[in-house]
Amino acid sequence: DGGITQSPKYLFRKEGQNVTLSCEQNLNHDAMYWYRQDPGQGLRLIYYSQIVNDFQKGDIAEGYSVSREKKESFPLTVTSAQKNPTAFYLCASSSFQVGGNEQFFGPGTRLTVL
Amino acid sequence: GENVEQHPSTLSVQEGDSAVIKCTYSDSASNYFPWYKQELGKRPQLIIDIRSNVGEKKDQRIAVTLNKTAKHFSLHITETQPEDSAVYFCAASISGSARQLTFGSGTQLTVLP
Fold first, then answer.
1. Which residues of A touch B99 (CB under 8 A)?
2. Which of B45, B98, B104 lies nearest to residue A42, judging by beta carbons?
3. 20 to 30 A from B9, CA-CA: which of A28, A33, A67, B39?
4. Which residues contact B76 (CB under 8 A, 6 or more apart)?
5. Distance CA B107, CA B102 (A)
6. CB count in 10 Å sphere of residue B2
7. Cβ proximity of B84 and B77 under 8 Å
8. Burial of B97 (0-12, 13-18, 19+ CB in 10 A)
9. Is B49's CB within 8 Å of A41's CB?
10. What digits encode the pLDDT tens for the residues A70-82?
11. In Å, how far from its chain's centre is CA B18?
12. Which pLDDT tens digit goes with each residue over A44-63?
């Protein structure tokens, strides 16, 4: 189903805890992205990565961290420094090939802070 | 950075009527404009996109128009059906290998039977 998987589907976190959201793709895409979606709002870019071992901050990177140790994987850690982490998190990937501009999205992880 | 504004935020149409959603962007360097459809609780899926070297693109009941001079682009859905009900997002991309997308705030389209 699109070649991008995210886990878990639902995640509950206590205040003060760090949690890591998984994102894996088998599309051989070079670039991967993390977005946050709040109710009634668009998607906001948290981090993106163009190649392994390299990543850049997006518009709302504060309180989040990422790693890109493998081309297929781009996990996102929501740290305790993120003041309002309850949201729907979407991972996406895209190819650098000519015409390969489309970003493919994973099914998302809904994070709730208790 | 790029800023994308999308209107309206909600749109209700009768089944069979047309729906139009409009977006404006701020950065004249943007050259790729996709539209995504997101059903409740699901992932966004690309429905159509347009590049700045064309002014219009059609795919069956869906069309997108682009006015580079005015920096706006629109999604047109004809002969709407109940299954078209969803949230639609426009986006704009600044040239670059990672194709960073800036999204509009979304339009909740409801097609009334």
1. 31, 94, 101, 103
2. B104
3. A33
4. B18, B19, B20, B62, B63, B64, B65
5. 15
6. 16
7. yes
8. exposed
9. no
10. 999 999 999 988 8
11. 14
12. 999 999 889 999 999 899 99
Q: Dihedrals φ, ψ of B84, to 5°?
A: -80, -10
| Disruptive mutation site among B99, B103, B105 for chain A (greatest number of A CBs within 10 Å) | B99
pLDDT digits (tens, 9 = 90+) for A79-98: 988 889 999 999 999 887 65
Taking CA–CA distances from A99, the nearest residue in chain B reads B51
Helix (H, G, I), strand (E, B) or coil at B84: helix
